[in-house]
Amino acid sequence: MGVVRGVSPDERAATADRLSRTLDRLSRSRESLQNNRVLVAASDYRLATSRRLLNPTGPGAVPSRDDQLRVLARGRLASGVLFAPRVAMWAGFGSGLPCAVCEEAVGPLDAEYVLRAWNATQLVAHFHCYVAWRAELDALHGVGSPSAPASAPHPSPDRED
Ligand SMILES: [Zn+2]
């Protein structure tokens, strides 16, 4: 008999069937892989958001606008552009002058703070920028925050209370 060592039609059909089921599974896994990627991306986003909420200054934190303003204000105080304003100060609508903190014009729809130094130098700032400026001044003088670092840049001599 011319028996062949080849594959019988039954075996061939079975193999084709297995192959087709394998391909089918493969395409389904590809699909779920795609779905998983989407889910992972969504989870990553949620994780990053939660992490920022839990630890706003930790690694991966995106500085908020207020933080950025604080950094700007800190640098400008250090370089002497900003000063500790005299009490005299008023607020109104923006004059269009550049803000002393962020350098953007204080537009007519913005609240503008006008601040005068003892030497009559006058600066304008957006409300939010002034808040950051003020906060940096307070931090510099160790006012306000009870958790202010002990290594403040200026160990104020007037803290004998
Ligand atoms: Zn500003």
Description:
With 161 residues, this protein is mainly alpha-helical. The protein folds into two domains: 1-62, no CATH class; 65-140, no CATH class. Helices cover 46% and strands 10% of the residues. It is built from three helices and three strands, in the order ααβββα. It has helices at 9-54, 65-78, 127-140; strands spanning 89-93, 111-116, 122-126. A three-stranded antiparallel beta sheet has the order 1-2-3. A hairpin with a 5-residue loop joins β2 and β3. It is rod-shaped. The termini are far apart. 15% of the residues are buried. Mean pLDDT is 78; it is low at 147-156.
List the ligand species: zinc ion
Oligomer: single chain
By DSSP (H or I, 4+ residues per run), the number of helices equals 3
Question: What structural class is derived from the secondary structure elements?
Answer: mainly alpha
Average pLDDT, all residues: 78
Low-pLDDT runs of 5+ residues are 147-156
The topology string of helices and strands comes to: HHEEEH
* Morphology: rod-shaped
Q: How can the largest sheet be summarized? A: 3 strands, antiparallel
Distance between the termini: 113 Å
The order of strands across the largest sheet is 1-2-3
Strand content: 5-15%
Rg (C-alpha, Å): 33 Å
The helical percent reads 40-55%
Instruction: Find the count of extended strands (DSSP E, 2+ residues).
Output: 3
Whole-number count of domains? 2
